[in-house]
TrEMBL record:
Organism (species): Floridaenema evergladense BLCC-F167
PANTHER family xref list: URIDYLATE KINASE, URIDYLATE KINASE PUMPKIN, CHLOROPLASTIC
E.C. no: 2.7.4.22
Protein name: Uridylate kinase
Subunit structure: Homohexamer.
Length: 242
């Protein structure tokens, strides 16, 4: 079976890496994610990853406790690099060539983000993990995912989360919450569905990059999404609200 996409950007939250732990990184979860990414790479699909840092430090929470917001966000960016390096190590242990590129210079541990170099790595079959967000405070890693996807001409953004799609309300609070199968960007923005922040959605809309939201906890979901199976919720410009 052929793949539906040639180049993808996978957005992983920091919380996804901690599994059932309350904090930090669960090595077993990281190994499982690496294994799934390896399956996708073996099909010839080019994979870029943006990883968050909320399992270690979240800038918004730091600011809420009295820390300067810009300082808190920079600390959060450094946390994403820790996650990126951890994921890189897991991938390389199973022989998947991987590069970490950071928006903040950390030359001893990672390459600086250079768009053309990132694309070249992808063309050579290497997984590229983007760390340190966009390099600017006040922007989320969701916005970074949309920005990097546009820069590398990704076909799609896969947002792997702890829920199986986008709902009209929080399914953890409202048992009657309705899951959408498809949405357009305008509905996401006007209904404030919060699957990604509004800046990220606007970037995707402007560059016509579809977003597929699905449950990372189901083994094989990344491969299924790459193959074009209908899982989770898809957001795009021409989709009806269903």
């Amino acid at each position: 079976m052929g793949t539906a996409y040639q180049r993808i950007l996978l957005k992983l939250s920091g919380e996804a890496l901690m599994g059932d732990l309350g904090y930090g990184i669960d090595p077993q979860v990281v190994q499982e994610i690496a294994s799934e990414v390896a399956e996708v790479v073996s099909t010839g699909v080019q994979v870029a990853i943006v990883v968050g840092g909320g399992n270690i430090f979240r800038g918004v929470k730091g600011a809420a406790r009295g820390m300067d917001r810009a300082t808190a966000d920079y600390i959060g960016m450094i946390a994403t690099v820790m996650n990126a390096m951890t994921l890189q190590d897991a991938l390389e242990q199973i022989n998947v060539p991987t590069r970490v590129q950071t928006a903040i210079a950390m030359q001893e541990v990672a390459e600086p983000y250079i768009r053309r170099r990132a694309i070249r790595h992808l063309e050579k079959g290497r997984v590229v993990i983007f760390g340190a967000g966009s390099g600017n405070p006040f922007f989320t890693t969701d916005t970074t995912a949309a920005l990097r996807a546009a820069e590398i001409n990704a076909d799609v953004i896969f947002k792997a989360t702890k829920v199986d799609g986008i709902y009209d309300s929080d399914p953890y609070i409202n048992p009657q919450a309705r899951r959408y199968h498809s949405l357009n960007y305008t509905h996401v923005l006007t209904q404030d569905l919060r699957v990604m922040d509004s800046t990220a959605i606007a970037l995707c809309k402007e560059n016509n990059i579809p977003i597929i939201v699905f449950d990372l906890g189901v083994r094989g979901n990344i491969r299924r999404a790459v193959m074009g199976e209908k899982i989770g919720t898809i957001v795009g410009g021409l989709y009806e609200v269903t």
